[in-house]
From TrEMBL, chains A, B:
Enzyme Commission (EC) number: 1.2.1.41
Function: Catalyzes the NADPH-dependent reduction of L-glutamate 5-phosphate into L-glutamate 5-semialdehyde and phosphate. The product spontaneously undergoes cyclization to form 1-pyrroline-5-carboxylate.
The keyword Transferase is annotated on this UniProt entry: no
Alphabetical list of CDD domains matching this protein: ALDH_F18-19_ProA-GPR (cd07079)
Gene Ontology, cellular component aspect: cytoplasm
Principal EC category: oxidoreductase
Chief site of localization: cytoplasm
UniProt-listed GO biological process terms: L-proline biosynthetic process
Molecular function GO labels: glutamate-5-semialdehyde dehydrogenase activity; NADP binding
Name of the protein this chain belongs to: Gamma-glutamyl phosphate reductase
Subcellular localization: Cytoplasm
Key words of the record: Amino-acid biosynthesis, Cytoplasm, NADP, Oxidoreductase, Proline biosynthesis
Family, similarity comment: Belongs to the gamma-glutamyl phosphate reductase family.
Organism: Natronobacterium gregoryi (strain ATCC 43098 / DSM 3393 / CCM 3738 / CIP 104747 / IAM 13177 / JCM 8860 / NBRC 102187 / NCIMB 2189 / SP2)
């Protein structure tokens, strides 16, 4: 990795971004294929670097500073590397998100407006210490024509350096503009990035909620990120209780460490006595630690809940339970304590489901399905860039589309605004029509 | 205007926002009709309040602190009030931007995902001292189901207070949720808003570029705004010079005070001798103050340009001219000095036009048309919320759509993620299909 200052790296990324924006779909795909091939060809080099990271991490594990889970996530193998190059090829296979015409409107005869999808530009990313994260983010950036600044976790420093060099070299041979990907390692460089609002168009931090908040609070660059996931399942009085039990179980137990797992189960009082004993038994068999409010504890024997539980993302086999007396009370609880991530109602009553889905301000609202479906792959978005708990630009699971913006192309024939203003103003047509923008649209007619 | 603290106002707006999100198109339109009628019925009251603002402004005009233009903009009349209520009715007539299904995807049999347009929530706005601005922003907010915090210029304080009361009363009688619109007047309240990232979803400041930058630098709330408009017209070597002259003239002279007027004219050296004398004569006849680089001054007699001119938004009858030796040089200049607002190339060569349009990172890029078309009304977006020079969420002229976001509705039949994971994972269908989300979609089958 070169020792260029961060300002030079971001400058180079800006220059590359302009070229990337006009790079054909074919060449961007060829760049990705080159990355995948290079990873396949450099297993030894990558695994040797990774071994250094793992050794250092194991020392810290012995010292009690790291968890086994962290060490496991760090560790690469030949088969994991195959998965990674496979992932890169699947990103290459995704439909091109660029230069689609999103809208076409005829303002007047021979005055055609096209809204065209384009890359965002320079995207600064900071991500967790899984070495596959660097490859994934670089791949998504290239697919969508964005220049990327990559800052990975220091635990994966050796692996990331080698992976970055491989990516840089592979894309250079595939004629992707130099400088499209830049790696930074120092925490000071992250802070320097936060001030570069003239040259960085978007920041995408991944990591703890505290870290994402820190980024948001210290930059005027737009931030796409994910803070907390305090998700709810509401078992309505009109629920099919068998279905409710399956959903409540899946939403907590299938994979409790992720942001779309349920943290609070809300149960309508009409079904509390019928529903709670069965689900509590299943949870306890699966070692879920349960806490309940008073009404819950009248029906089942669980620990008392505290007010802090309601807005805690456990990320583990823990769950809080509350009995509510109405749909409104359930919605009120979610509005007060939720993080606007994902909520599900289980009910046979379509109108009640619609009230729940319309009335809650969460990125994903479900009717009779597990909250665990909130994920870019499951949503069919292809690769996932991340999940956004913000409401601006992209919300919920974010795919390649979230890495694009648009620009207006206007094709005219010498039209002047003066013609359409004042006393004898010519009226606009403003007709939507169906066409892709292509160079010289008007002259071809 | 009530003397509630800003925190109370924002709380009320948040509560109202949840109700507004489920308010039918019909009731939102009825609210707007009620506003328009109320304005029609209260001319005397509004004009009396406006008279106070104008009197105060005239005193400051005499003292040399205000400009005549500012006083003119402040002043209302019966006919201006008719225009304002007409504008509100036209916002009501706009197509509903809400609850449209933007995408529908079948994840599996009876597991349907809908991406549905919804309001953003609570939008904080700060705007210039034209009294019609308050009504316009409130109207756009209500049409798109957003609660709005309104902060107008202090010069229009009396007018704004009366207009706000009329709006508040009219929408209350039309059953729009109380508290959907909130007025603030103190500068301290604006600063307080900047810190309320838990309750305000978007800030839309209008005003000077310095003011918008101040807002961006002092909040972690997303900001949609417009900083500078340094727009360019490039007369290519392959231009129809007659057309080029008309466009260059219109882009500067038709209305020089606005952000989409051209500030720098770039001329290819191949046509400089043929093109410059004619356009310079027309500009001079229209009292445009001209500055040129050396090559320009070899052809026409204009003042020398300074480096500062290239990134100055004159907003007046002033223009800088540069002769360039290539399309790339023109693009390089725009990339270096432009503000990514609007640029136009005049050329008969479609490929050169395409290079210009693809290669520049501006919100609007034109071929053979005046930069002055960059405007929400001309683009056919209906009413314009503002123009964004950012690239995230909404870019260029922003219509009602820019005041919406989306949310995912998932309709299931008890589906669990466990079914689609692990060894015997059921594959997803991921079929796009054509349907609007309606309550109880699945149960109706």
């Amino acid at each position: 990795m070169s020792e260029k200052p961060i300002e030079t790296k971001v400058d180079e990324a800006q220059t590359a971004a302009l070229e990337l924006a006009t790079l054909s779909d074919e060449r961007r795909r060829a760049g990705l294929e080159a990355i995948a091939d290079a990873i396949d060809e450099h297993h030894d080099e990558i695994l040797a670097a990774n071994e250094k990271d793992v050794t250092e991490a194991e020392k810290l594990l012995e010292a009690g500073e790291y968890s086994q889970a962290l060490v496991d996530r760090l560790k690469l193998s030949a088969s994991k590397l195959e998965d990674i190059s496979e992932m890169v090829r699947s990103v290459a296979a995704q439909e091109d998100p660029l230069e689609k015409t999103l809208e076409a409107r005829r303002l007047d005869e021979d005055l055609e407006l096209y809204k065209v999808a384009v890359p965002i530009g320079v995207v600064g990313t900071v991500f967790e210490s899984r070495p596959d994260a660097l490859v994934q983010i670089a791949a998504l950036g290239l697919r969508s024509g964005n220049a990327v600044i990559l800052k990975g976790g220091s635990e994966a420093a050796h692996s990331n350096r080698v992976l970055f060099e491989i990516i840089e070299e592979a894309t250079a041979t595939a004629d992707v503009p130099d400088g499209w990907a830049q790696q930074i390692e120092a925490r000071e460089d992250v802070d320097a990035m936060l001030a570069m609002d003239d040259s960085i168009d978007l920041l995408m931090p991944r990591g703890s909620s505290a870290f994402v908040s820190y980024i948001q609070d210290n930059t005027s660059i737009p931030v796409l990120g994910h803070t907390e996931g305090v998700c709810h399942v509401f078992v309505d009085g009109e629920a099919n209780l068998e279905m409710a039990e399956e959903i409540a179980f899946d939403a907590k137990v299938q994979y409790p460490a992720v942001c779309n797992a349920v943290e609070t189960l809300l149960v309508h009082e009409d079904v509390a006595t019928d529903f709670l004993p069965g689900i509590v038994e299943r949870y306890e068999d699966a070692d879920v630690e349960l806490r309940g409010d008073e009404a819950t504890r009248e029906v089942v024997d669980v620990d008392p809940v505290t007010d802090d539980d309601w807005n805690t993302e456990y990320g583990d086999l823990e769950l809080s339970i509350k009995v509510v007396d109405s749909l409104s009370a359930a919605m009120g609880h979610i509005t007060e304590y939720g993080s606007k991530h994902t909520e599900s109602i289980v009910t046979e009553d379509a109108d009640r489901a619609a009230r729940f889905m319309r009335g809650l301000d969460s990125a994903s609202v479900y009717h009779n399905a597990s909250t665990r479906f909130a994920d870019g792959y499951r949503y069919g978005l292809g690769a996932e860039v991340g999940i956004s708990t913000g409401k601006i630009h992209a919300r919920g699971p974010v795919g390649l589309e979230g890495l694009t913006t648009y620009k207006y192309h206007l094709e005219g024939d010498g039209q002047l605004v003066a013609t359409y203003a004042g006393e004898d103003a010519k009226p606009y047509l403003h007709e939507e029509f169906d066409a892709e923008w292509t160079p010289g649209r008007l002259s071809e007619k």
